[in-house]
Amino acid sequence: MSEREYDVVVVGAGFAGMYLLHRLRGLGFKTRVVEAGSDVGGTWYWNRYPGARVDIESMQYSYQFDEDLQQEWQWSERYSPQPELLKYAGHVADRFDLRRDIQFDTRIGSARYDEATSRWTLEAENGDRFVARFFVMATGCLSKPNWPQIEGLGSFAGPTYHTALWPHEKVDFTGQRVAVIGTGSSGIQSIPVIAEQAAELFVFQRTPNYAIPAHNQPLDPVYEKKVKSRYAEFRTEAKQTPPGIHGRFRVGNAMDATPKQRQAEYERRWDAGGLSFMGSYGDLMFNQDSNDTVADFVRGKIREIVKDPDVAEKLCPKNIIGGKRLCIDTSYYATYNQEHVHLIDVKERPIEAITPTSVRAHGRDYEIDVLVIATGFDAMTGALTAVDIRGKDDANLRERWADGPSSYLGLAMTDFPNLFTVTGPGSPSVFTNMLPTIEQHVDWIVDCLAYMKDRNYTAIEAEPDAEKAWWDHHQEVSKIGLKTTTDSWYLGANVEGKARVFMPYYGGFPTYCQKCEEVAAGGYEGFAFG
Ligand code: NAP
């Protein structure tokens, strides 16, 4: 047990916490990063399941704050696999000598603000205490695992692995009977890889998902050279697109094109692979008829790939495409052509129970040796409310957000002075390329702290009117288009009992950045300083 005092305490040593530490150090802030894991990497530290890889192209899913770093680092594949991303995080930690200011294996349980001293005291589960003027939650949007509420889950006698808490040692499925519960991105990435080893694979699917081929391949050295020859401009161009991703986004309407033109465009995008598939036309997420055309196209592909028509039908999503996060796959649908892979639809009749030896569904026991849980995360708010955060007058963040979160710009909350969140609810976060978004947030927070330091301000707090105005605007924007018509983790719909409030900001990265810049330029409009 120890108690130490800092200028800033950051929770989380993923990409956000690492960059925060680097920037804060540069400005002379005495900073401590506290991390529950045993090393840096965040998402890529925890999500080690087979097949895990990023769904943004490697040349874009990387830091840009240091030109030498981005020039020197070489990615090996179009979409980096998890081990390479973790290696990259480790490389950045080494290069900027970050680990000496990070305390690993320490999970923060509570944080209390003392108004008299304008300081936070954070307490870890091991009893260590950290006192700091400023406190930043850099805990990620998808980091608190969501466990399904299934009777007997804990009774399974064999190994149970959650994709978001995967063990560090290699898991060998050779000759095993394996069940996977969940068919989101984690399930869709891991199922084809597990199928390569397993003797029998039972996939329990509640809602089918749309998956677009990744066409992953070794990184083209010509492309790499081209990007690196103008990396800064490339990054600037990316930031001008709504998701902050360099890609080919069209502005035309799908319904203005002929069926033949649409088919050709969708084929071209399918062959190119990746998330820019949904950039085929500008109105796909705003017009139901347009969305139907692209959803029908993907369903057609599923029926083409999957040989058994009944299985193909079960795999065809009925909801709109893009309502949930699009999945990027490698051989996902084709996996179901293998005889030892079985799809069990548990939409209408949910899994009844887990027994010591089986998953019970439809009155049958599917006998298994290994259970894989791919049921995702308590997204956006889960990692924030996991810590008992008490602000002014003992304001309790968990209680405050019981009916859904609210924030000013996804960066700060009224009654929680000197607390910042990186990519919190109300920021574009998961609708964008997370790395540049993290850098934008970190730069904004650090610039704000430097501004305060110059003026000898000791406290900053979001004003209630500013928070309300931002949150109202954010909620208004989320209603434009089709996004909210689907149950998704964006809405908190995947966690039983969680309030349904749309969490990521849907107004686009450029609009959001402009607002942040205006706020800063106006002397941090909407914030009160003490
Ligand atoms: P997810 O998208 O929330 O998927 C969870 C899956 O579990 C869904 O199919 C869900 O069905 C199912 N499920 C939950 N409870 C169940 C139950 N009781 N019985 C049966 N099925 C149940 O989680 P995820 O796959 O971990 O992905 C979450 C997000 O993380 C992604 O959307 C993405 O943003 C990110 N991610 C990205 C990558 C990548 O490509 N780089 C990889 C993994 C994750 P319902 O849909 O019916 O709820």
Explain what the structure shows.
- With 530 residues, the protein is of the alpha/beta class.
- Helices cover 32% and strands 17% of the residues.
- The protein is built from 16 helices and 20 strands.
- A hairpin with a 4-residue loop joins strand 4 and strand 5 (119-124).
- Helix 1 runs parallel beside helix 14 (434-455).
- The model has no long low-confidence stretch (mean pLDDT 97).
- The structure holds NADP nicotinamide-adenine-dinucleotide phosphate.
- NADP nicotinamide-adenine-dinucleotide phosphate binds at residues 54-55, 142, 148, 150, 163, 181-187, 189, 204, 206-207, 325, 328, 346, 351, 374-377, 430, 489, 494.
Write the layout of secondary structure elements.
Blueprint (H helix, E strand, L loop, with lengths): L2 E9 L3 H12 L4 E4 L8 H4 L20 H6 L9 H14 L6 E2 L4 E7 L4 E6 L4 E9 L22 E3 L14 E5 L3 H13 L2 E6 L5 E3 L7 H8 L2 H9 L19 H14 L15 H18 L3 H7 L11 E3 L2 H4 L5 E5 L7 E2 L3 E4 L2 E4 L2 E4 L8 H4 L2 E3 L6 H4 L18 E3 L12 H22 L4 E3 L1 H15 L30 H13 L5 E3 L1
Parallel strand pairs: 1-2, 1-6, 2-3, 4-17, 6-18, 7-16, 8-9, 8-16, 9-12, 10-11
Antiparallel strand pairs: 4-5, 5-6, 13-14, 14-15, 19-20
Bound molecules: NADP nicotinamide-adenine-dinucleotide phosphate
Number of helical stretches of at least 4 residues: 16
Distance between the termini: 32 Å
- Determine the strand fraction and express it as a percent band: 15-25%
Using the 3D structure, state the CATH architecture of the domain at 3-145 and 378-459 and 504-525.
Answer: 3-Layer(bba) Sandwich
The rough form would be described as globular
The CATH superfamily title of the domain at 3-145 and 378-459 and 504-525? FAD/NAD(P)-binding domain
User: Rounded to an integer, what's the Rg over CA atoms?
Assistant: 23 Å
Q: Summarize the amount of helix as a percent range.
A: 25-40%
Low-confidence stretches: none
Give the overall pLDDT as a whole number.
97
Oligomer: single chain
User: Which secondary-structure class do the elements indicate?
Assistant: alpha/beta
CATH class category of the domain at 3-145 and 378-459 and 504-525: Alpha Beta
Task: Indicate the CATH topology of the domain at 3-145 and 378-459 and 504-525.
Answer: FAD/NAD(P)-binding domain
Major sheet = 8 strands, mixed
Strand tally: 20
